[in-house]
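Reviewer comment 2.1 asked that we show a complete input and output for one of the modelled complexes. We chose the cobalt (II) ion case, as it is the one discussed in the main text.
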Amino acid sequence: MPPFFAQTDPIAFEGKGSANPLAYQVYEPDRIVMGKRMEDHLRAAVCYWHNFCWPGLDPFGGQTFERPWFTDDMAGARLKADVAFEMFDLLGLPYFCFHDRDIAPEGTTLAESNRNVREIGEIFARRMEASKTRLLWGTASLFSHRRYMAGAATNPDPDVFAYAAAQVKNAMDLTHELGGENYVLWGGREGYETLLNTNMQQELDQMGRFLNLVVEHKHKIGFKGTILIEPKPQEPSKHQYDFDVATVYSLLCRAGLQDEVKVNIEVGHAVLAGHSFEHEIETAMALGIFGSCDINRNDYQSGWDTDQFPNNAPEVAIALYHILKGGGFTTGGCNFDAKLRRQSLDPEDLLIAHIGGMDTLAEGLLGAAALLEDGTLPGFVEDRYAGWRFPTAQRMLNGEMSLDDIAARVEAEGINPAPRSGKQEYLETVINRLL
Ligand code: XUL
Ligand code: CO
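Response of the prediction step:
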């Protein structure tokens, strides 16, 4: 096969002064930041769907990209797999992610679809022997085919639930065999369009059982990776049951899975939910369910999912500050769930987009490290809560004191708290000084 990209040498680090768009300016995989290699901090992944499957359509126009593998058959799927690994190797990034339907066409039966997926899985296994790129996560598309228009796990038809479960089993088994480090569930249609035709309690019961089936299967096959749910508030469903991190936590508690499943937080989904990305990260950290990130950028005006490549380093720095402060990634990483704009037609645009995204992540990592190493921000927060270290405060927190006991103490000691400044503007100047 002739190469798809004109670029044949792996993308090199050339430093900040370089005007070469096909070189990293900041991302140096081996550079040590806070005792760890950049690559190991960021654990970046290339996604299959936006790069190799999305044809460039929008609601008003069709395909803009012309790719030789857009043939909807197994020959195209094989070519696509080869080009994908060509790109992974050029970028030198450590991970990739895929949906089952990204990698192989749907057959006329599930058995045929599964065989198609497995055949491409064999190509992946072979290519991974010669490539440094590993699998961050696999997933199943339970939202594209019309059978899923009313949901997969939450479909009113139990046969759709069964079909989805069978599809997930195949995708999980393949993810496990390829050494995937996580398995993701994004429930694009696990929600509803109108309550006029929806039994919400029934659908939540179905969703809880489906998640338990996935976790049971994970243990059965000995998959050591993390099961992740990716929250999103709307689109394609009008109302989704996995709206944001806090809503996912309630779903997990309802299903008894809060210690088994974590979240894959996407920047754009946080924005669509009316949150900041760092709010979602910190919520997950506080609830003990932080897993992984889909790194991208969303248009702040549009109201839909724009999946742009990140290019705002200070924003990324603040998010990574919260991730590093919480201990960093374990099995998770930064998956570029981002796509080119539909006018960016050239093969090299795929490379340039990832290089720019990686440099933004690397710059953000350096910023996050600066915030942590300076210590002003974490120190300020620690100080703000210092009163809780005293034994009387601890007794209020650990349940040793009742409302009566606390009220009696306030009276006996004449407690009359003096408010202290939150110093937001000062802290914002610290951010501006360091980033
Ligand atoms: C959709 C989305 C998905 C998930 C995987 O908005 O983010 O691509 O990341 O299904
Ligand atoms: Co995503």
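The pocket of D-xylulose (ligand 1) is lined by residues 49, 99, 139, 184, 186, 230, 232, 266, 294, 305, 337 (CB under 6 Å). We note this here for comparison with the apo prediction described in Section 3.2.
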